[in-house]
Description:
The protein is mainly alpha-helical. It has helices spanning 18-36, 38-47, 57-85, 92-103.
Amino acid sequence: MSANLATWSPPPPGTNFIAILQPMITFLLPGTILSSFLIPILIAIFAFSTPHSRRQPVFVLNVLGILIGLLQGALLIYLSVCSFLEASQVRLTETLRGTFYIIA
């Protein structure tokens, strides 16, 4: 019975199969672009606010939301890079789904 099973050999060290990398790129590109939009928004929120408006709860919650979004983007980039380096050991979609559920 074991003679009928096809054997799978991993790619050479330092390379990965395209089919393995495709889901990682799908998450990495939009996640990086969308999280990078938060940096100018954070700068603008401080530049156009007054000292009185910075003490309002809405301002604090907006800053907190932006910082959580930046944290989520940093986690996305970190997990994607780790997945590129060790594609056979990390399941990116399950890891990211769990991360998004925890943060959201």
